[in-house]
Specification:
Layout lengths: L3 E8 L2 E2 L2 H16 L7 H4 L10 E8 L3 E8 L8 E5 L13 H7 L7 E6 L2 E2 L6 E5 L4 E4 L7 H8 L4 E3 L11 E5 L11 E2 L5
Parallel strand pairs: 5-6, 9-10
Antiparallel strand pairs: 1-2, 1-3, 3-4, 6-7, 8-9, 8-11, 11-12
């Protein structure tokens, strides 16, 4: 079994949406490793003084227990063009530390900044993020994600976004697409025009 990861946004010394990460962390420990006891990330994570200014990724590597907690400076990547890449065998149900399969798909981006993975004819995720599409009125996320990201789950819970089936043929229905993950909120980066997907 591969170790798993949990990535938490730490801005100016504050961990964001920790309750959502804590829930997924314990759910994954139980489902993937068979661990029944829960842990509280709030008591396990010690925020270093040097992270009190700036943006950092709190990266937790764990199996049955936490193996490593590290804080890494984070800078947003400019993302303007996306490439559709089809793969019916990719599996990222859990946030695996081992990402070789995803990395190989990312290498097929043909000069684009990121990829949109299509599995069994359905749009799933990008290389590192869930996707949300804007139709001029509402935000929609595919109901076939590879990973149920914490940001996606929170936005669904708060009814800020909705989920539906999205295939490559559906893309012209939308105006823009945004990439969301623990580090990228819905309004963090500018949305990408649908015509920038090839």
């Amino acid at each position: 079994m591969f170790p798993l990861l949990e990535t938490i946004k730490c801005k100016d010394g504050v961990l964001h949406h920790l309750e959502w990460h804590n829930e997924r962390f314990n759910r994954a420990r139980k489902s993937y490793f068979g661990v029944d006891s829960s842990m509280n990330l709030a008591t396990e994570i010690k925020i270093p003084q040097w992270t009190t200014q700036g943006l950092f990724r709190c990266r937790i590597t764990y199996s049955e227990q936490i193996e490593k907690i590290e804080f890494l400076p984070h800078h947003y990547r400019k993302t303007e063009r996306l490439k559709l890449v089809e793969d019916n065998s990719v599996d990222y149900k859990f946030k695996y530390a081992e990402r070789t399969h995803l990395q190989k798909l990312f290498e097929k981006r043909n000069g684009c900044d990121d990829i949109i993975i299509v599995k069994h004819g359905s749009v799933t995720d990008s290389f590192t993020a869930n996707l949300v599409f804007f139709d001029g009125k509402n935000w929609w996320t595919p109901n076939t994600p590879l990973l149920q990201g914490t940001q996606r789950e929170r936005l669904l819970h708060d009814k800020i976004i909705k989920s539906c089936s999205i295939t490559p043929n559906d893309l012209p229905k939308y105006q823009t697409v945004s990439l969301i993950n623990a580090m990228q909120e819905l309004d963090t980066l500018p949305p990408i025009p649908i015509q920038n997907i090839s």
